[in-house]
Write a structure and sequence with these properties.
By secondary structure, the chain is mainly α. It has helices at residues 18-21, 24-40, 47-53, 58-64, 68-93, 97-111, 121-128, 135-159, 168-189, 191-208. It is elongated and about 65 Å long. This is TetR/AcrR family transcriptional regulator. Keywords: DNA-binding, Transcription, Transcription regulation.
Length: 210
Amino acid sequence: MAPRTRPAPDSPNNGSSGKQGRSEARERLLSTASRLFYREGIRAVGVERILAEAPATRATFYRHFPSKEDLVVAYLHGVDADMRAGVRAAIETAPAPEDALRAIGAAVADSLTSPEFRGCAFLKAAAEYPDPDDQVRRVILDHRAWYTTTLTELFAQVFGNSPRRGKPEHAARHFVMMRDGAMSGAHLDGVDSVGDAFRRGVEGLLTLLH
């Protein structure tokens, strides 16, 4: 989904804490960077560009973010927080686990139609940070592990003890694969057709594998 440009919640991983972490300057820097990173690419946007558009001084920037990579990590933590909140809301409001999965899938399909949509923020970041030991890459992998685990748990509830029970982890990875494809191909193959195909794919996982 197209990430919002609100700041990430304060955490031990986002490079700031306390009053400093909640400062207006930090929020402005992170909001500006998030918008530019998602729209234009992380490595294409330099610190000077962020400072000019925030606006902020270099001293202010480095007081809140010791490096550009710390800013990138905070950006991705913000996207992750938004996605977790959306998935949590889908689970809490759905009458059954299959409805939660449909709601999660619908959110993916709906995000493709947003005018601000430029693909998956994590897939885009992964293409720019291929080193598995990079802290940005670790944030990406942690996010995907959470997403896949959450889907696996939901599919396990859907499949239950059905004699046609599939493997929940396989269904979850199939869901993620379809989501990745939809996020990557929507602007190439047509938003409406890709969104419809994704919805059908989710329904197929729910009806054909148990």
